[in-house]
Specification:
about 475 residues; alpha/beta; 2 domains; 8-stranded parallel beta barrel; about 10% strand; binds flavin mononucleotide
Length: about 475
């Protein structure tokens, strides 16, 4: 079982559905290069950077032979004159992709599109996703509130992602707290075409984050992160960030909105102010603990500062293992699943053939996705603002859900995304659906896979009611 074909990979020109977030300051050519060389796709984080730096980093990538990469800018957080020069530079350099975030800038989007540049926009709500699609954006990133750095929306990824996927017809990438292969499989089962990694790739050798920040990340857990408006200088108002808790976020360093400015660091002659959105970079000196120590809730599952290639490889191996796992593959069940006769009682005497198999598998995929959403919602404390986006034990169900979707696609189901029904079907309904479907299938491989899935769900149902 391999990772599903991703339309985002086709568009971006990458081999694997793992995307480096355009982290301002942190994602420079060194990190983008490492991600691209591993088959992923990377954005240079160029928010408010001068055109000369954009040009230098793009040239570095091209000199290393990389052709597929993006440049991230944030129109709403950039002085209009500088923004104009940044956009002109991206057009002059003919960068293939530009990533944007925060308020959608229709004018910038149009200019880039007219120049033949693909635009990827990160959103925090369904309405913003629809607006982005209408404006000509080609890929949307759905950002859950688990994300490190600036957080646009208020909803957890497990709720936002499937709704965004159902609302628009362009590929959707999932961002916020992504750290493992289980996250990749679960996000894809919810409809994502891949995942965006910020924090997980900041905690690598190639990122431009200062070693102080990396070490703080290593020691942290999801509960050590907090959404705060303490760091606001340089940004539009009402722009919360997720960072590691510190004296600044607890209020011990005073009122963030007081008029006076305190210098706490320096970057090549540029003062770094207390309460600014600058995070510690290799190029800085100063009081790093008082700067914005960005971190997403996936941080508790990052245990080393290795290479970016190793991090991506681990995620891929974990995902492949999950997709290969057959949760119902136990010896004594083999006999039962190998024969459709076992299900004859559930056929109501009618053999319906495989005519509508694609549609029925598609419906089943949608039902499984709904069951997955129900499983993800279980045991989640709605009041807790800092927890990983997906419960680890939902990954097996996610893997099955994804596999049924692939089966549906393999049978020629035409719908782009699984439908997300308003009412979640109980697992019993799903079991009934599978029970009716399995005996209709004559191909042994396909029938056995679905029969195993049914056994897996039946065992879960038994456990749940025990
Ligand atoms: C250090 C850091 C800097 C970031 N800077 C930017 C940025 O300049 N532009 C942007 O679009 N997103 C930025 N983000 C947000 C990412 O695009 C993405 O939503 C986030 O990293 C995903 O969550 P994760 O960090 O848990 O993986 C930043 C995130 C981090 C951690």
């Amino acid at each position: 079982m391999t990772l599903p074909h991703s339309p985002a990979c086709d568009l971006l020109g990458s081999r694997i559905p793992l995307v480096l977030a355009g982290m301002g300051g942190v994602a420079r050519a060194e990190l983008v290069s490492a991600v691209t060389a591993s088959g992923g796709f990377g954005f240079l984080g160029m928010v408010r950077e001068p055109p000369e730096l954009i040009q230098r980093e793009v040239e570095r990538l091209r000199q290393s032979g990389h052709r597929h990469f993006g440049v991230n800018i944030i129109p709403a957080a950039t002085d209009p004159a500088l923004l104009e020069r940044q956009v002109a530079t991206c057009i002059e350099l003919a960068v293939p992709v530009v990533g944007t975030f925060w308020d959608l800038d229709g004018h910038v989007t149009r200019r880039l599109r007219d120049a033949g540049i693909m635009v990827v926009h990160q959103v925090g709500s369904v309405d913003e996703a629809i607006e982005a699609e209408r404006a000509g954006v080609e890929i949307v990133i759905a950002q859950g509130r688990e994300a490190g750095g600036h957080v646009r929306g208020v909803r957890p990824l497990r709720d936002l992602l499937p709704e965004v996927c159902a609302a628009i017809n362009i590929p959707v990438l999932a961002a916020g707290g992504m750290a493992t292969g289980g996250d990749l499989v679960t996000a894809m089962a919810l409809g994502a075409a891949g995942i965006v990694l910020g924090t997980a790739l900041m905690a690598t050798e190639e990122s431009f984050a200062h070693p102080y920040h990396k070490q703080r990340l290593l020691a942290a857990d999801a509960a050590d992160t907090v959404l705060t408006s303490s760091f606001h200088i340089n940004w539009p108002p009402n722009a919360p960030v997720r960072v590691l808790k510190s004296d600044v976020t607890s209020g011990a360093r005073g009122d963030p909105h007081a008029p006076e400015r305190t210098v706490i660091g320096d970057e090549e002659g540029r003062p770094i102010y207390l309460f600014s959105t600058d995070s510690p970079l290799r190029s800085m000196t100063g009081d790093f603990e008082s700067m914005a120590l960005y971190a997403g809730t996936g941080i508790g599952r990052i245990h080393d500062i290795g290479s970016a290639a190793a991090r991506l490889q681990t995620i891929l191996v974990q995902a492949a293992e999950l997709l290969a796992v057959d949760p119902a593959d136990t010896g004594d069940q083999d006999v039962e699943v190998s024969s459709s006769v076992c299900y004859a009682g559930e056929m109501n005497g009618a053999y319906m053939g495989e005519a509508d198999l694609a549609d029925d598998l598609w419906l089943l995929a949608a039902q499984m996705q709904a069951a997955l959403r129900a499983a993800l919602a279980q045991g989640v404390d709605p009041a807790a603002a800092s927890q990983p986006p997906f419960a680890a034990d939902a990954a097996a169900l996610a893997s099955w859900s994804l596999q049924v979707r692939q089966l549906a696609e393999g049978e020629g189901a035409a719908t782009a995304h699984p439908i997300v029904p308003g009412k979640l079907p109980p697992r019993a309904l799903l079991l009934q659906g599978l029970g009716a479907l399995v005996p209709r299938i004559t191909r042994p491989g396909l029938r056995d896979r679905l029969a195993r899935l049914r056994l897996f769900l039946a065992a879960e149902e038994r456990d749940a009611s025990a």
